[in-house]
Design a protein that fits this description.
single chain, 476 residues, alpha/beta, Rossmann fold, six-stranded parallel beta sheet, 19 helices, 42% helix, globular, binds uridine-5'-diphosphate
């Protein structure tokens, strides 16, 4: 094994979306001749070994997986459920510094057989890793897998608190028109409404953990060596410029990372899947007409009430469209996601319902004409990369600002009201799949796709930025 390569330890926030984005980025670094150690939590690694082909986690020459504990003990029979996001987030903050330090010490031991660790790439919301990299005097590059607009919104939460705009005065502010208040002083986000800022502002509690953590983490970025965003220049220029002017470290836009890794041999061989992928849906899609299938997926963390689930289901059924719907086993609060018999019978001939799918393949399949999404940043970027217009139903975190940008700035999304109504679901699906507005959105989505592919093709702007961050920060 070559000992002269630079060695990056990549540590994502341990949820599916953050892992996927970091893994694409790690692939790109590997392609640029880095030795990679990709750090999973023990829980996720074990779970992924059970859900996916173990070869996906076997690594490659100069690409290894390592594990550290997340500080939460989980009974094995719970292994199909998502971990509670906030509990996990708080636990890794509290418990991962020492295991990360020990892991790097082991990697630096001459007996490890690999090169010494030369930099750490950590999720932008795991700033506790700075304690380890400062001790070791190695660069710590933050990889932001939430959207630039979500990160910028989180950065300004502190000022929103100082200006007495949040926390909300009462629960009523959630339903009266207070959330429509326009905030006109955040650079890069002109005329953003309170409701378009990260969902953690929707609290009356000044001590709310996520409210405070959000801005504290973004402000702690001052000690990072650089911050990388998963976007491309044409898409997010004003927001990236605003971030560059308020953040201390240099900012690089290097995305869409899922496209970067497409140009790399073996890019698909490494995967960390927390659910078992059902590739039969691709065979089903192969039998469908071009652009005729509506795809529905709420990502890995969204939880619906059973009423919302039923309203979505009837909306889909009544639209008369063919659709592919991914219903994770833990999609519905406290219940298994099973369709009521009468809906199942109604949609049998024109739908494919499964637990988890290879989403990037689905979105780039010619049969797929539209996507109902929770607006997770990875899903949004994957849809933009495939030229698929969206219906947006944001759930938490950066999904509210993502929805706003998809609908109002980029012209490729239509929003469903928070309170899901079957008639509205039906109307929007018909509009997207058959209406004039849908055609216009499809045209715009294809324009964005061309720009995304251009940025991420070898030699494109995102590769140039990757070369720059390597030279200016990682190897410095
Ligand atoms: N994903 C997938 N199959 C599915 C659902 C999701 O492969 O059936 C992937 C998707 O491609 C994306 C990630 O899981 O990369 C979800 O991340 P996102 O940021 O969209 O949402 P989150 O799960 O974090 O809410």
């Amino acid at each position: 094994m070559a000992n002269d390569k630079p060695h990056a330890v990549c540590f994502p926030l341990p949820t599916q979306g953050h892992i996927n984005a970091m893994l694409h980025f790690a692939n790109a670094l590997h392609f640029m001749d880095f030795h990679i150690t990709f750090v999973n939590t023990e829980f996720n690694h074990r779970r992924s070994l059970r859900k996916a082909d173990p070869a996906c986690l076997a690594g490659l020459p100069n690409f290894r997986f390592a594990t550290i504990p997340d500080g939460i003990s989980f009974p094995d029979d719970d292994i199909d459920r998502s971990q509670d996001f906030i509990a996990l987030y708080l636990s890794i903050k509290r418990h991962c510094v020492a295991p990360l330090r020990d892991l790097i010490a082991t990697l630096n031991d001459p007996c490890s057989g690999g090169p010494r660790v030369s930099c750490v790439i950590s999720d932008a919301f795991t700033t506790f890793t700075l304690a380890v990299t400062t001790e070791l005097s190695v660069p710590n590059i933050f990889f932001c897998s939430v959207s630039p607009v979500g990160y910028l919104g989180s950065f300004y939460i502190k000022e929103l608190i100082q200006r007495n705009i949040i926390p909300l005065r009462s629960e009523e502010d959630l339903t009266n028109s207070f959330l429509d208040t326009v905030i006109d002083w955040i650079p890069g986000m002109p005329n953003i409404r309170l409701k378009d800022l990260p969902s953690f502002i929707r609290t009356t509690n000044p001590l709310d953990i996520m409210l405070n953590d959000c801005w504290e983490e973004t402000h702690a970025s001052r000690d990072a060596s650089a911050i990388i965003f998963n976007t491309f220049h044409d898409l997010d220029t004003p927001v990236i410029e605003a971030l560059s002017s308020v953040l201390t470290p240099p900012v690089y836009d290097i995305g869409p990372v899922s496209l970067l890794s497409q140009y790399i041999p073996d890019h698909n061989s490494l995967r960390v899947n927390l659910w078992k992928e059902d590739s039969n849906c691709i065979e089903w899609l192969n039998e469908q007409k071009q652009g005729s299938v509506f795809y529905v997926n709420f990502g890995s963390l969204t939880v619906l009430t059973s009423n919302q689930f039923i309203e979505f289901a009837w909306g889909l059924a009544n639209s008369r469209c063919k659709f592919l719907w991914v219903t994770r086993p833990d999609l519905i609060e406290g219940e298994t996601a099973l369709l009521p018999a009468e809906i199942a019978t109604e949609i049998k001939e024109r739908s494919f319902v499964t637990n988890w799918c290879p989403q990037r393949e689905v979105l780039s399949h010619p049969a797929v004409g539209g996507f109902l999404t929770h607006c997770g940043w990875n899903s949004a970027m994957e849809s933009i990369s495939a030229g698929v217009p969206m219906i947006c139903w944001p759930f938490i975190s950066d999904q509210q600002p993502n929805c706003r940008y998809l609908c109002s700035e980029w012209g490729i999304g239509m929003e469903i009201g928070e309170e899901v109504k079957r008639e509205e679901v039906e109307r929007l699906i018909k509009e997207l799949m058959e209406g004039q507005k849908g055609k216009e959105m499809k045209r715009k989505a294809l324009e964005w796709k061309v720009k995304a592919v251009k940025a991420a093709s070898l030699g494109g702007d995102s590769w140039i930025k990757l070369e720059r961050v390597i030279k200016e920060v990682m190897l410095k």
